[in-house]
Specification:
The structure holds 3 protein chains of 3 kinds. Chain A is mainly α. Chain A has one domain. Chain A has 11 helices and 4 strands. Chain B is mostly helical. In chain B, a hairpin with a 2-residue loop joins strand 1 and strand 2. By secondary structure, chain C is of the alpha/beta class. A 6-stranded mixed β-sheet of chain C has the order 6-7-8-3-9-10, sandwiched between helices. A 4-stranded antiparallel β-sheet of chain C has the order 2-1-4-5, covered by helices on one side. Chain C has one domain: P-loop containing nucleotide triphosphate hydrolases (Rossmann fold). Classes of the chains: A mainly alpha, B mainly alpha, C alpha/beta. At the A-B interface, helix 4, helix 9 and helix 10 of A face helix 4, helix 10 and helix 12 of B.
């Protein structure tokens, strides 16, 4: 295998993983865009969904599709719970309030999940079995392709919703011009709630695809998903939807190459170091967005 | 006092240091998710001091605090000028880099024929200086709480000075503070350095009293808990984070009923408390009321 | 003492100040008047170091101060009372005054007492700033600017939003106890109040100076009448 072939193969794997990250980042960013706050329990909601589905898989023999549906439904319910407890009542306050509140709920949801499935590694059904497809010297697993296709489809769906529907318009106005939102009569409360629900559902699909690929779920998943969503969002530009997608793909690529050259710890270290440098040198990320008014913006969401 | 109680109280004392560390930064308006990094750096530094370099404990503990302070100053210089949200994420990223750094860090040597020193993911054990010096459980408890009391008293004393006032001004309204002549960046850097020293000291204590540390301990969970302690216990006084730690760890260890669902309960309490008491139990208003009570007792005005 | 020399401030393509010249001598109280958006508050922000200059210089006692951070300018003795009072809400009135003093050195007790007395806020000393009404907030705002006696006082709408008697009381306070012997720039819409307080007026419009002189002269100038009242 020539080095070039390795590079391309690793890149292919990276993009495949990156499509999962992009979906996670999309969900995370939608929430940030509408609240101007970080939701630290993002991953935990997804994890609860995955664990509930995993429990049903273990005890009731649920197959892949039923597991997928359960993951999405439970994640969405958890997302609504989070919005109601950690964000809606704290709208006018400092950022730290909902930050800490969402952390507290993260702890709640994670513990709830681990009560359901106490073991460290829990089986998660595969989306499909099958040999990898071969494209010349390169191979791709069928479930990777499915994830990529679904990811692209969902991104298109999100884009269409944001730019072609009234609900999407409401969300964009709320995210970019919160002062205008009130003036134009947009119902901030229900827009925020619906966005959270939709973003959680999106995250649920992402979680299912990723976990089906791994064929297992561990208690680390919650933190892992939140972290990936966060890093991808920051890489692509705080609060930018296209940025989230690019950031996710970029993160997948970078991690794949880093893991290849530096091993799993090198991979993680590089991701965090990149995030850190990004913040210190180019806080706007690739697609740039100033944070000058974020605080005032957030407090204006009453 | 039972062994279990001593153990719980000692634990509360040690963890309070990292809570205090996060609190100091909260006072100047900075939300740090990374104080666990300095707790870890202090733990490793002090542990290496006694276990590998054979230093006395009395030298190793301040060394841990110093390492924590220097690292915090370095991080602060790079990040404190960032907007609040970016600052918070940067502290998280930095702390994770440290944690992974601990996983990759190996510094082994042999002592009395046995290998000793930090060994990456395997952790760092045999930090036995405290036990070799013959400290009983009660001695350890006293050591921790003496140092904690010292730290808290110093912070409370500083509150009343010009520096304490400046810190509060920066924490509440940095723009107004600058208009009143306060160098905001300088105050924040000083706070970060003090916070790093506190975490580093706590880490050194932790390493010695538990005798074993590993990278996994110094993760984001610890960091967010540290923040939560100040926010629950109260931002009005340095006693706040200690109270928060006591509530959390006390709740965990002391009650059987919560054994499987401590976080569900604690998490719920935190979320509700944040809505009802934005600045914690011992917030500025509560501290003022308590202070007034003391003044009323000391100087009775009515015959 | 203070000299603005062809000062230009631009943000986002908008010229808020256009080659403005302004000078304040010792003991002079200069009133800045002009319609909304003429740049009055921008002048104060620029002097205070809150805005970068796109052109020109600001000199204080012959030394350049533009480009200095706000806290250094405050320490030079240039104090600012903001248009919208920003007290430290979690602190009491007395603590707010102490805070304003704490940017520098020295014992705070006497200056705080004197300021409380001067502004008739002694009764409110232990009231949290969050609980103050507008009139007391404005006084506290003023108090924070003068607790450490400034060399130059920048007042932005000191009577904004107050009722008629309160405006009269504030004017009296400023005229008899705060401004005498002190250099100051006062910005306000209430030209009557300013006429009482200021020795000189400077009229701005769209970031440019359109008139300068005694209050009477400036208010009579056709350009000023057009800009402020729409008639000539």
């Amino acid at each position: 295998m020539t080095p070039l072939i390795d590079v391309v193969q690793v890149s292919i794997d990276g993009v495949m993983t990156g499509s999962g990250y992009a979906l996670l980042a999309l969900g995370f960013t939608l929430m940030f865009g509408v609240m101007r706050r970080l939701n630290l329990s993002f991953g935990a909601a997804l994890m609860l969904g995955a664990y509930a589905a995993g429990w049903l898989h273990l005890h009731a023999g649920f197959g892949a599709l039923a597991v997928a549906a359960t993951t999405v439904v439970v994640a969405t319910l958890a997302g609504v719970y989070i919005e109601r407890l950690c964000f809606a009542p704290l709208r006018g306050r400092d950022a730290i309030a909902s930050l800490v509140s969402s952390f507290a709920v993260w702890m709640q949801l994670e513990e709830l999940a681990t009560l359901m499935l106490p073991r460290h590694t829990n089986a998660f059904p595969a989306l499909m079995d099958g040999d990898p497809f071969l494209f010349g010297p390169f191979h791709v697993r069928p479930d990777q392709i499915v994830m990529l296709v679904i990811a692209v489809a969902l991104m298109l769906l999100v884009w269409l919703t944001l730019h072609r529907t009234r609900a999407g318009l409401a969300l964009r106005v709320l995210a970019d011009q919160p002062g205008a939102a009130l003036a134009v009569g947009i119902d901030i409360r229900s827009t925020a709630l619906m966005t959270f629900a939709a973003a959680s559902a999106l995250g649920g699909i992402a979680a299912f695809l990723i976990l089906a690929g791994d064929r297992q779920v561990t208690p680390m998943f919650g933190m892992w998903a939140t972290t990936k969503g966060l890093i991808a969002m920051m890489l692509g530009g705080l609060g930018s939807i296209p940025g989230a997608v690019v950031g996710g793909l970029a993160l997948g690529l970078i991690e794949a190459h880093a893991q290849w050259r530096l091993g799993p710890q090198g991979r993680d270290l590089l991701a965090y170091a990149l995030l850190f440098l990004c913040l210190v040198w180019r806080p706007g990320g690739l697609f740039g967005q100033t944070l000058a008014d974020t605080e005032a913006t957030a407090r204006a969401r009453l | 006092m039972s062994d279990a109680a001593i153990s719980v109280l000692t634990n509360i004392g040690m963890i309070s240091f990292v809570g205090l560390s996060a609190w100091v930064l909260l006072t100047v308006g900075c939300v740090s998710f990374g104080q666990q990094a300095f707790f870890g750096l202090g733990a490793y530094a002090a542990g290496i001091g006694t276990a590998v370099w054979q230093w006395p404990l009395l030298l190793a503990l301040p060394f841990g605090a110093l390492v924590g302070a220097l690292a915090a100053a370095l991080l602060g210089a790079m990040t404190l000028r960032l907007h609040g949200l970016y600052f918070s994420i940067a502290t998280f990223a930095f702390a994770e880099c440290c944690r992974i750094g601990f996983e990759l860090f190996s510094y082994r040597t042999t002592r009395d024929g046995e290998p000793i020193g930090p060994d990456g993911v395997e952790g760092f054990g045999e930090i036995r200086a405290v036990f070799e010096a013959g400290f009983t459980a009660t001695d350890q408890l006293t050591l921790v709480w003496l140092l904690l009391a010292l730290a808290v008293s110093l912070l409370i004393a500083v509150e009343r000075t010009r520096h304490g006032i400046r810190a509060r001004m920066v924490g509440e309204d940095p723009v107004a503070a600058a208009l009143h002549g306060v160098d905001v960046a300088h105050v924040r850097l000083a706070a970060a350095t003090v916070a790093g020293a506190l975490a580093g000291l706590g880490g050194g204590l932790y390493a010695h009293l538990t005798t074993y540390i590993e990278p996994r301990l110094f993760d984001a969970m610890l960091g967010v808990h540290a923040l939560a302690y100040g926010l629950i216990g109260g931002l009005g006084t340095a006693i706040g984070p200690v109270l928060g730690a006591a509530l959390d760890i006390g709740l965990l260890e002391s009650t059987r009923w919560f054994s499987g669902s401590r976080m569900i309960v604690f998490g719920g309490l935190v979320a509700v408390l944040i809505i009802l008491r934005p600045r914690g139990l011992l917030d500025e208003a509560a501290v003022r009321r308590i202070a007034n009570l003391f003044h009323a007792r000391a100087r009775p005005r009515h015959g | 003492m203070l000299a603005l020399d062809r000062v230009t401030v631009e943000f986002g393509g908008l010229r808020a100040l256009d080659a403005l010249d302004l000078a304040v001598g010792p003991g002079e109280v200069v009133g800045l008047i002009g319609p909304n958006g003429s740049g009055k508050t921008t002048v104060l922000n620029a002097i205070g170091g809150l805005l970068p200059l796109s052109g020109g210089e600001i000199r204080w006692r012959e030394a350049r101060i533009d480009g200095q951070p706000p806290h250094r300018i405050a320490r030079l003795g240039i104090a600012r009372a903001l248009q919208h009072p920003r007290p430290y809400l979690r602190m009491t009135v007395a603590e707010n005054l102490r805070a304003a003093w704490s940017g520098g050195h020295g014992d705070w007790r006497e200056p705080v007492e004197k300021t409380l007395a001067l502004l008739e806020l002694e009764g409110q000393r232990d009231v949290p700033a969050a609980d103050l009404g507008l009139n007391d907030r404005r006084r506290l705002n003023l108090g924070q600017a003068i607790v450490r006696p400034p060399e130059l006082l920048l007042l932005d709408e000191p009577a904004g939003g107050l009722a008629a008697e309160e405006i009269a009381a504030m004017t009296e306070l400023l005229a008899s106890r705060v401004l005498p012997g002190r250099a100051a720039i006062v910005v306000d819409h209430d030209v009557e109040m300013l006429s009482r307080l200021c020795t000189r007026f400077v009229a701005l419009d769209a970031g440019r100076k359109i008139a300068e002189g005694t209050p009477a002269e400036v208010l009579a100038a056709p350009a000023v009448r057009r800009s402020l009242f729409g008639d000539a």
